[in-house]
Structure to design on (287 residues):
């Protein structure tokens, strides 16, 4: 299988470090299963660390949406960190950027779960403007 | 999918060595096909592409397959389906799949000798395969083939 999933926790927030590809087949399946197990826990707030995700296909995008939906239904939220340019392009192109909060920094993503903490969100409009001629 | 100029790549070949876009291009158009071994639509498509490959002459477009799986899985796929199409491996970091903005497999690009993308297609499109076959003046589908007009990847 080409997707490794490592789970850790910081300040009560679950962080999944993903490595490899999120694509149709066992990769998207194991990703959904892991997230489904997390959704059954109390307050399942989740950060997906995409730093080492080098390829996402349409099924992988669908899996990410399913994960976000199941976590939301369970009363939690899913946030993304360390997205590469291609993966951000995919979210923008499919208009899925509106359902995920994206951060460059893990601490900012953690802080976003706590009211009153200072955060720096990822400015997707700036990203689109900077890359519109690529 | 990509339009305009086809991005360059530098990928290992299943048979050893490395290939770039330049090195696989010739005087005829190039057909690049991205695939994954466990993709049912790829498994459906490739035997028809192999018919094209078998009928190819020096005046035919060259077909290059780009697998998103490792050498063992790719070799197993090619053996299982009798594929002799030259195959490159796009694995670590998926540089070619990302450069060609692949979101579904199979995805197929027809590239002119000067590097322009002439045609692209995701999934199985019967009309596209027939169009490619017409470039080689061959018939890919027989009356006995039960082939849908389109099958998503």
């Amino acid at each position: 299988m080409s997707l490794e999933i490592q789970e850790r926790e910081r300040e009560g927030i679950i962080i999944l470090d993903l490595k490899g590809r999120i694509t149709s087949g066992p990769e998207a399946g194991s990703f959904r299963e892991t997230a489904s197990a997390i959704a059954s826990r109390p307050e399942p707030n989740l950060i997906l660390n995409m730093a080492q995700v080098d390829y996402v296909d349409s099924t992988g995008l669908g899996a990410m949406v399913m994960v976000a939906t199941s976590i939301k239904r369970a009363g939690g939220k899913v946030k993304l960190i360390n997205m590469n340019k291609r993966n951000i392009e995919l979210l923008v192109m499919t208009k899925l950027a509106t359902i995920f909060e994206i951060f460059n920094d893990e601490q900012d993503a953690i802080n976003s779960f706590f009211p009153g903490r200072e955060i720096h969100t990822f400015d997707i409009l700036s990203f689109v403007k900077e890359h519109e001629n690529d | 999918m990509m339009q305009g100029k086809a991005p360059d790549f530098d990928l290992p070949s299943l048979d050893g060595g490395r290939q770039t876009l330049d090195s696989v291009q010739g005087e005829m158009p190039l057909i690049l096909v991205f695939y994954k071994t466990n993709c049912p639509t790829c498994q459906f498509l490739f035997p028809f592409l192999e018919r094209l490959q078998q009928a190819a002459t020096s005046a035919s477009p060259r077909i290059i397959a780009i697998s998103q799986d490792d050498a063992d899985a790719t070799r197993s796929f090619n053996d299982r389906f009798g594929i002799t199409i030259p195959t490159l491996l796009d694995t670590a970091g998926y540089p070619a799949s990302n450069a060609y903005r692949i979101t579904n497999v199979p995805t197929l690009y027809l590239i002119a000798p000067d590097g322009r993308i002439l045609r692209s297609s995701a999934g199985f499109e019967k009309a596209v395969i027939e169009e490619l076959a017409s470039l080689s003046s061959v018939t890919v589908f027989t009356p006995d083939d039960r082939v849908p007009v389109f099958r998503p990847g």
Q: What stands out?
A: The two ends of chain B are 14 Å apart (CA to CA). Chain B has a mean pLDDT of 94. Chain B touches chain A at residues 36, 38-39, 68, 91-94, 97-98, 101-105 (CB under 8 Å).
